Amino acid sequence: MTVDKKWVEKGYIDEPVADGVDLAKEIRNLCKEKNAVILAHYYTTGDIQQVADFIGDSLALARKAADTKADIIVMCGVHFMAETCKILSPEKTVICPDLNAGCSLADSCKAEDLKKFKEEHPGYKVVSYVNTTAAVKALTDVVVTSGNAKKIVDTFPKDEKLIFGPDYNLGSYINSVTGRNMLLWNGGCHVHERFSAQEIVRLKKEHPGAEVLVHPECKGPVVALADVVGSTAVLLKHAVESDTKEFIVATESGILYEMTNKCPEKTFIPVPPEVSEGSLGCSCNECDYMKMNTLRKIYNALKCEWPTVEVAPEIARDAVKPIERMLELS
Ligand code: 13P
Ligand code: SF4
């Protein structure tokens, strides 16, 4: 099916659908007809998590992408997640419902800058967070996610010289729990960097019995206040298994959907971000990139089998090794 030029220019198809069309039902029908599978990250909206075949953190999504028997993978997350699917399953059609769904953290590390940094630091191995472009992964020795970073870094000899990028906060946290001194790239996520330690202290006073759940992309002072630090899946698992009834949550607000879904009797309190001087007091703790996924874009993308994500073969050849290494080690 040819896609109208206007949508190609935009990077997604948002063709209106007739009133009364049950998009979730139509999407499931298309998945059946085309042998397609929908993978969604916990930061997508609840309606997408409901329609997905599988929801998970970055690690679980990468594992699923490597294992699925489907012909088409619709990756409802952000662009680097779709790239990882394509690298692990090159023979499949991988759809990213909106090609503009980037990641500020992945953007903070350009391949040419990392290449230069490596040249300036001979003898160092590169550990890259999964939130990176395929081109950066191709320059990497091993990929990690927030769910397995400690375990994988621990596999290197204690005296191994390591560069960790691009997330400075995650790197500092992993340095602190492994007793290493990895060289850290100075990148960050625009959502996680804004969570406020002061707000956590205030919320803790109001809810003294609550446990504080923090994603390691948050800044050091926020991580220092955490009862549990971990990936979205780790935080969710803890919320389910803990006897505590109230949780203060410092990560993107999409995770609250599955937390509330799995534990309807518990209370989850999102941490507001810092309000910077001159801002309008926006209390937004959402990843605008993750929220670019909508049911209508997914429906149109499945119908047209576009927008697809491609990775140049010479980059895929080098990027697959550190991803497979991660899957073996975790
Ligand atoms: P997780 O690996 O914890 O799901 O995190 C992905 C992400 O993008 C965090 O901002
Ligand atoms: Fe990237 Fe941050 Fe969005 Fe995660 S929350 S996808 S790190 S911009």
UniProtKB/TrEMBL annotation:
GO terms for biological process: 'de novo' NAD+ biosynthetic process from L-aspartate. It comes from the Bacteria. [4Fe-4S] cluster binds at residues 103, 189, 287. GO terms for cellular component: cytosol. It is found in: Cytoplasm. This is Quinolinate synthase. The lineage of its organism: Bacteria, Pseudomonadati, Bacteroidota, Bacteroidia, Bacteroidales. The gene is nadA. It comes from Prevotella pectinovora. Iminosuccinate binds at residues 41, 58, 129-131, 146, 215-217, 232. Pfam families: NadA. InterPro entries: NadA, NadA_sf, Quinolinate_synth_type2. It catalyses: iminosuccinate + dihydroxyacetone phosphate = quinolinate + phosphate + 2 H2O + H(+).
